[in-house]
UniProtKB/TrEMBL annotation:
It is found in: Golgi apparatus membrane. The keyword Cytoplasm does not apply. GO terms for biological process: endoplasmic reticulum to Golgi vesicle-mediated transport; inter-Golgi cisterna vesicle-mediated transport; protein transport; vesicle fusion. Belongs to the GOSR1 family. GO terms for cellular component: cis-Golgi network; Golgi medial cisterna; Golgi membrane; SNARE complex. It is a single-pass type IV membrane protein. This is Golgi SNAP receptor complex member 1. Keywords: Golgi apparatus, Membrane, Protein transport, Transmembrane, Transmembrane helix, Transport. The lineage of its organism: Eukaryota, Metazoa, Ecdysozoa, Arthropoda, Hexapoda. One of its GO terms (molecular function) is SNAP receptor activity. The keyword S-adenosyl-L-methionine does not apply.
Length: 110
């Protein structure tokens, strides 16, 4: 059961991270974020919005992949659980629904 709780915490953290990234990604997609600046010694280096957009998209894809893997592990644990299986399956379904919603939102914004 301890592994289940650890995985649930990981899933919630990933979901929160994805949510924050999706907000940034959506703003980038609509052009409401100003250009990002990075100081490299004395030279000010401007990153293009397209580069930032692609970078955030890659980060979101990685987070979605990690969340899918955590959900898979949760599914394995839930399928082997006999005493508290219904509650676990309900929780697992909720995490899967969140993953599906975030994936759809990401694809729509892309």
């Amino acid at each position: 059961m301890n592994e289940w709780e650890d995985l649930r915490k990981q899933a919630r953290k990933l979901e929160n991270d994805i949510d924050l990234k999706l907000v940034s990604f959506s703003k980038l997609g609509t052009g409401t974020v100003s250009t990002y600046k990075s100081n490299d010694s004395d030279t000010e280096h401007l990153l293009s919005t397209e580069h930032v957009f692609n970078s955030v998209a890659l980060e979101i894809e990685e987070l979605l992949t990690k969340l899918a893997a955590v959900n898979e592990k949760l599914g394995e644990i839930a399928s082997n659980e006999t005493g508290n299986g219904a509650a676990m399956l309900h929780t697992l379904q909720r995490h899967r629904d969140i993953l599906q919603d975030y994936t759809q939102e990401f694809r729509k914004t892309q």
